[in-house]
Write a structure and sequence with these properties.
Blueprint: E1 4-8, E2 12-16, E3 26-30, E4 40-43, E5 50-56, E6 60-69, H1 74-86, E7 91-102, H2 104-119, E8 123-127, H3 131-140, E9 147-149
Parallel strand pairs: 6-7, 7-8, 8-9
Antiparallel strand pairs: 1-2, 2-3, 3-4, 5-6
Helix pairs in contact: 1-2
């Protein structure tokens, strides 16, 4: 299989790996500049995206999540939820209806946010988990650690 070239400049060529369906596995091939060696780098690029929409009432903050929670997006979730917790709501709800993936980094952030919510006296609620997230919480034994509701 031949790599597909997606960018070319005087300094480099960026190619995607067909075996990875273009979602990651880029190669950067540096062109030989005078006095520089030519190197090729395999770069694991995450295509994960997370969108966070936040609403606030006097008593609760709701963060509607869409996308994937992984090592490249977990800090975005932490920042949004920490910002919501700074206003000291009585309840913080993370709506997982459109979350398609969560890895160990995402779970770690959820555990930390749950702890942070307790410290400010807020109820931390995870809502509308899909089958993947539900199975993940069961597999890791974390279901009991969270207040989980289905508000659909």
């Amino acid at each position: 299989m031949t790599p597909s070239t997606v960018h070319t400049s005087e300094l480099c060529t960026l190619r995607t790996c067909p075996q990875c369906a273009g979602s990651h596995g880029f190669s950067i091939i540096a062109r030989g500049l005078p006095g520089h060696e030519v190197d090729s780098y395999d770069v694991g690029v995450s295509a994960a995206q997370l969108y966070v929409a936040s609403t606030r009432t006097d008593e609760e903050a709701v963060l509607v999540l869409s996308g994937e929670i992984d090592m490249s997006t977990a800090d975005q979730l932490r920042a949004a939820a920490s910002h919501a917790l700074a206003t000291r709501p009585s309840r913080v709800v993370l709506d997982f209806a459109d979350v398609t993936f969560c890895d160990s980094r995402g779970l770690s952030v959820l555990i930390g946010l749950n702890r942070e919510a307790r410290q400010v006296g807020a109820r931390f609620v995870v809502a509308n988990v899909g089958e993947f997230i539900s199975d993940l919480l069961d597999l890791t034994g974390l279901r009991a650690a969270f207040d989980i509701i289905d508000a659909r």
